[in-house]
Structure formats: C-alpha cells, structure tokens
Amino acid sequence: MPDALERSRRIVFTGAAGGIGTMVRPLLAAAYPGLVLSDRVKPGNLRPDETFVSADLTRPDEVAKAVEGAHSVLHFGGHSTEGPWDAVLQANIVGCYNLFEAARQAGVKRIVFASSNHAVGFYPRRKKIGTDVTVRPDSRYGVSKAFGEALGALYSDKHGIAVTCLRIGNVGPRPLDVRRLSIWISPEDLVQLIRIGLDHPQVRFEILYGASDNAATWWDNSRAHKLGYRPTGKAEAFRAHAEAEQAKIGPDPVGDLFQGGTFCSAEFTNDVKRAGP
Known about the structure:
This protein is of the alpha/beta class. The protein has one domain (about 5-275): NAD(P)-binding Rossmann-like Domain (Rossmann fold), CATH 3.40.50. It has ten helices and nine strands. The chain has helices spanning about 5, 20-30, 60-65, 85-105, 140-160, 180-185, 185-200, 220-225, 240-250, 260-265; strands at about 10-15, 35-40, 50-55, 70-75, 110-115, 160-170, 170, 185, 205-210. The strands form two sheets. A seven-stranded parallel sheet has the order 3-2-1-4-5-6-9, sandwiched between helices. It has a two-stranded parallel sheet with strand order 7-8. Helix 6 (about 180-185) links the parallel strand 7 (about 170) and strand 8. It is globular. About 45% of the residues are buried. Residues about 1-5 have low confidence and may be disordered.
C-alpha cells in the first residue's frame, strides 16, 4: 500500500474517457486520490478531486502539458481496436512515442502501459505461453502494442523509468464468449495489476498478462504472481453465459485456432497451416 507521501503523487491517466478508463477510474480513485485525467474528450462524472487535461496524443505540446509535474503515468490512450494503418500509426505509434518522450522530459518515474493480447494473437490456443515469447501480432493494432512494449523497454533501460506493460485480455463484468473464458479480466483484478506497476519496488521493466484466475487460460502469468498479484475473478463462473453467446456467433475456421480470434481471421489470406509458430 502506498504511504501518505506516495498517495500524494501526481498520477496522469491517459485514455480516461475510454471503456477501460471508465471501468477502473472509481476503483483507482480510492487508492490514488487526485488523479489527473487526460483524453481528447472530457470523461463523465468527474470527481471533485480529479483534474481533466485535454490532450491529443499526436500533438507533442498537448502531451507535454498533460504529463507536466507527473510522478507516474497510466497510458491507456490511443486507438483501441483494429483500424486503418494511418489511424493506428498516429494514435498508437506516434502518440505512444510522444507520451514516453514527454514523460522522460518531465521526469516521470513510472509508466503503466496498456498493451494487449493482440501483440501475441497468432499463438495457437493449444499452446500456453509466457511473457518471454517472440511477439506474434495478429493485426496492425497488435503491431502497435508490440511497438509500445519495445518502447517501454527502451525507456526503462536507457532512461531508468519503471515500465509495466499489461497484455490485457478483455475487461468487463463477465466473459462475452468462449474465447474470453481464457482471456477475461475483471476491473478489480486489472486495478491490482495497475497498482503493482505504480507501487512495486522491484519493477524495472515488466510484461504481465491482464487476465483473472481463469481455468482455461492460455497464459503463464507466474511473474505477476511473484509480484503479488492475487486475482479474484474466475471466468469459469460464467461459462454457461459465454457458451450461449458463442452459439450465436458461430464458427470461425481461422480465428478459432488462434488466441487473437477474429483479429487473426480479418483480412486473412494465408494457409492456416503456415500461420503462427
């Protein structure tokens, strides 16, 4: 738990108006009062102790203003799904660089980067993987998240910023289909991982999987557990709902083979036997 001095840190939360930001903000606020929220649009239900700073990640001057005086940054901003190359490039690659560089210049000590399972989406579902595997992105979006992880390693090793990259599965109150039984994470468990990134003294550069205690997991998250992660969410409790929703979707001859699901099958022109490791 942060002591009184640590609780007074200026923590900037980019992408605060997005879906994940909206879910975790109330939970973070209890531990870290006075969050500085940043996005292109103002989040709803701003608390009296929260501050909003408008910033477009593609504009270095706006990003610099947002992180001015910050001790830590939660970088959840950017393009949140697959999209045209220019949209992904500007928000998730140029924007991510702008954020890390502005943080370096501002003397930021810690960054928690919202990476994604789509950085490794072309691993087959039958294969359990750790965080030390070669990235196998399933989309332009996945490529941008792999870039963010690499950038985090650079800024950790070269500039001493403590960086935690969270390969987030799917955040929500319950898994939405069978694939998400393996990758689901509750908002409460995601906040646990964020707090490790903000507070754990051993963090230098870490990649952790953003998943709850899922019986069907494809990921070895032992490093997160060594850092104190104790997830309470269990996807298996929602299996009946997930299977019912899956029946409405139907089969995907490509996506059903790989961890990235429909991100793998979209625009796919390869032979499935030649895809993935």
